[in-house]
TrEMBL record:
SMART domains: MeTrc. The lineage of its organism: Bacteria, Pseudomonadati, Campylobacterota, Epsilonproteobacteria, Campylobacterales. The keyword Transferase applies. This is protein-glutamate O-methyltransferase. Pfam families: CheR, CheR_N. SUPFAM superfamilies: Chemotaxis receptor methyltransferase CheR, N-terminal domain, S-adenosyl-L-methionine-dependent methyltransferases.
């Protein structure tokens, strides 16, 4: 059996479905990426063309979710862009007026490394009943991994030594070569599937929202819609972090004050 080739017409259909479901533009440069990531599904079902797989995706919701999972980029690691976590630890938390709980939303949390990084810091600085972190992602596979909190041992190197000592448990037996996040953080955390283009109105209000390495996948119109939707859940005076490699140019950011590169505060 020769390796199937993704034809232009098939790719355009995948582009349309992916945009409808996730709001993400797969530009033409992504064609080879789509072909390679979906190839395993063709082999799994013994399909000879991507058209056969498209037919399955269009009638089977579970397979559509699997397609989205496979096409969603999930590169992440602990304490990514350390400046953000230093700001959280040294400037934000010591001066922020916490009324009940300091609530963080890790939007597009992937496998949870960002959420657990913040959790380790908050747990060292605040009482247990004073903080909470919610992580969401459209990818159901990564949400399951985030809930488990089990990672390759090589990832532990990005975690500061004093936090590594307190919150990372070395794997043994079948988990040799991995480490587990200490369960003491779990009662203050929750991971859920969520689409940034369809945020429930009762999702709640947050003091800090991470939306990093996400906006780069959207066109300007969708970026505006995503940012507007996320801002509805940021408290006045709350903080909004994007990635150092992103910006809010070309969209309306009324009501947001730029504090530092990639760090904003909601006025009010």
């Amino acid at each position: 059996m020769s390796i199937p080739i993704l034809e232009d017409a098939e790719f355009r259909t995948f582009q349309k479905i992916f945009f409808q479901e996730a709001g993400i533009d797969l530009n033409d440069k992504k064609k080879l990426l789509v072909q390679s990531r979906l190839l395993k599904q063709l082999l799994k079902y013994k399909f000879e063309t991507y058209t056969e797989y498209l037919r399955l995706v269009q009638i089977n919701q579970l397979e559509k979710v699997e397609m989205i999972n496979l096409l969603t980029t999930n590169e992440t690691y602990f304490f990514r862009e350390m400046e953000h976590f230093e700001f959280l630890q040294k400037e934000l938390i010591p001066t922020y007026p916490i009324h009940t709980k300091f609530r963080i939303w890790s939007a597009a949390t992937s496998v949870g490394a960002e959420a657990y990084s913040a959790a380790m810091l908050l747990d060292t600085m605040l009482d247990k009943n004073k903080w909470e972190i919610i992580g969401t992602d459209i990818n159901s596979d990564v949400i399951q991994k985030a809930r488990v909190g089990l990672y390759p041992e090589s990832w532990v190197e990005k975690i500061p030594a004093y936090l590594r000592k307190n919150y990372c448990l070395k794997g043994k037996g079948i988990n040799e070569g991995k480490f587990l996040i200490d369960r003491c953080l779990i009662p203050n955390m929750r991971f859920e599937e969520g689409n940034l283009l369809n945020i429930p109105s009762d999702f709640g209000q947050f003091d800090l929202i991470f939306l990093r390495n996400v906006l780069i996948y959207f066109n300007d119109a969708t970026r505006q819609k995503v940012v507007d939707g996320v801002m509805d859940h940021l408290l006045p005076g709350g903080y909004f972090f994007i990635s150092h490699t992103e910006n809010l140019n070309m969209i309306n950011t009324n009501g947001l004050e730029r504090i530092k590169t990639s760090i904003y505060r909601k006025q009010g």
